[in-house]
Protein: Germination protein YpeB
Organism: Candidatus Flavonifractor merdipullorum
Amino acid sequence: MQALWSRRRIRVLIISFLIAAFALAVGWAVQGQAKASHYRRLLEQDYQRAFAQLTTAVGELDSALQKIRYASSSTLFSTLCAQAFSQATAAQTALGQLPMGYVELEQTASFLAKAGDYAMALARQGEEPSDDDWETIAALSDTASGLDTLLRDLEADLMGGSVTLESVEQIQERLSQATGDDQSPATAGSTFQTVESDFPEVPSLIYDGPFSDHLSQRSPKGLEGLAEVSRDEARAAAAQFLGLDPVLFTPVSQGEGVLPTWGFEASVDGGSLYVSVTRQGGKILEVLSSRPVADATLSPEEGVAIAKTFLEQRGYPSMAETYYLIQDNTLTVNFAYQDGQVLCYPDLIKVSVALDNGDIVGFASQGYLMNHTARAYTENITDRAQVESNVGDTLTVLSHRLALIPTEGEYELLCHEFRCETEDGQHILLYFDAATGAQKRILLLLEDESGTLVQ
């Protein structure tokens, strides 16, 4: 009898323990669900804030482009062009913080890049805009106005609750289903497609800059002779480039054009990570991260060193830093290929470093892939001292180097580059044809604590 009683006590204790454990597990689950719900609300608020910033920046871009159309002063014209560039950059930053923004809003991202770069190219050309320039400005202004209207209408719907922004998980699921096994391009279907389906026509840009449409029609010199890669091979290349597990990457897009790509997305460190890989050669074309960057703990110099080391470790050992810019605690460094004594500006790579912990949160290599090739330079180079005599008595020469710069059409020009200081302390760059000694270009350097803009 006592043994039976003992067994009953043990059974009661076990049942009591299981009930208590179950209750505790339920409590943990409820608490975890509450925390997850709280984090989701915070994330949705971040997305809404980023969309509001995108809408505001596009509105300011629209305003700047409209003002440019009526600027008769060269000084005001250049100032407004710089403002347009700044707002286009701010809009791109906000777009990168949206879940899959660069995939879902591909046309928007392309327009912002083109409009900003074109405005800066006009500001630094140092001559009166041509009739074609004015027509392009008007067309860009009309496009920005149309985009501004679309975004503001969508923002009103978001505020009214009639539509919502998708979560990263929803977009991942839909896009992965859209790609399927046939490797067809992912079709969108989110709120963002209201913008993309009604996107205004973007004018063709013909000018001396990296987004010039006539330059974009060339075949990429940096990929010549390389074989095509499969989507799985491209996924492996993306993972290796970023030091991550390939299983994290979900196929989300299949880009066409002069640089056909495979596009992948991964959720990393609390943000969405987008990577595009060229289908020819499997080279990384672009990396974009929407991870929120906290307060900076690294100096700009430390960030530049991290970016340079990153490039060296990934097969780009001869890249020289040119300029950098800091926005929202993110340092973006422009690197150009150093070919012996010649700095090749067309071979451009941009690397973005989060200054809170040194993560690489951005990478763009289109300039490098489009232009990088073996070059033969003219042996008929004018003497530096002879060219320097044409700099001007009011300028102090700080440094000199040979530089290859892009020109109108599809050409490159070897130049003497002189970095100079004006009497009031401003820094400028002067370019003289290395073969003839003729002055070809003047660039103004706008320098402050956040970095350098070239105008």
In short: DSSP finds twelve helices and 13 strands in the chain. Residues 2-68 form the longest helix (67 residues). The first strand starts at residue 250 and ends at 255. Confidence is low (pLDDT under 50) at residues 1-5, 28-43, 167-191.
